[in-house]
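# nightly structure sweep
# worker-07 picked up a monomer target from the shared queue
# config: single-sequence mode, recycle default, output format = structure tokens
# input follows
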Amino acid sequence: MELALLYSGGKDSTLAALLLDSFYDVTLVTAHFGITDDWVHARDAADRLGYEFDVVELDEAVAREAAEQMVNDGYPRNGIQQVHEHALERIAELDVAAIADGTRRDDRVPTISRAQAQSLEDRHDVDYLAPLSGFGRRAVDRLVDSTLNVESGPSERITKGDYEAELRAIIADKHGQDTVESVFPDHVQTYVRGLK
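# output follows
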């Protein structure tokens, strides 16, 4: 069965791919707005891992609306959630039996409720899977430490293929770098360099 996994090149989405690989023909799919070329980092990670890779283009208006939401809120949560939901909608339109993401049990954002998952499944005739939804951060970190070579560091320094870089670019272009730094809290990102 074909499965499209929303993929950033980070540890969570990579671990999700490894968990699903026994049951599905997994294609790693990166969603982007065409604002930057950061999606290539996810492609490169997928290539190193030996997975099929695809991209889907998202509606740039969604990115601009999400960026303004973040600036107005003073934090990224609602904007990231909005973009993640849009990305899942887009990959659900692919010709696959299932879609998935790397959201964990203790993620604050993004999260997909049972109602949202069921709606995706019903409207697109796909299965939605969140294989890490039963795993806490410590369990994920232990599995990652034993399985993957990972680079970690501040979000603004780590290459990755998620949409955060594009949202940062939109905010910087319209509101300046100081606004980007005030909206996004310091947090650690990961980028997978390969299997151990």
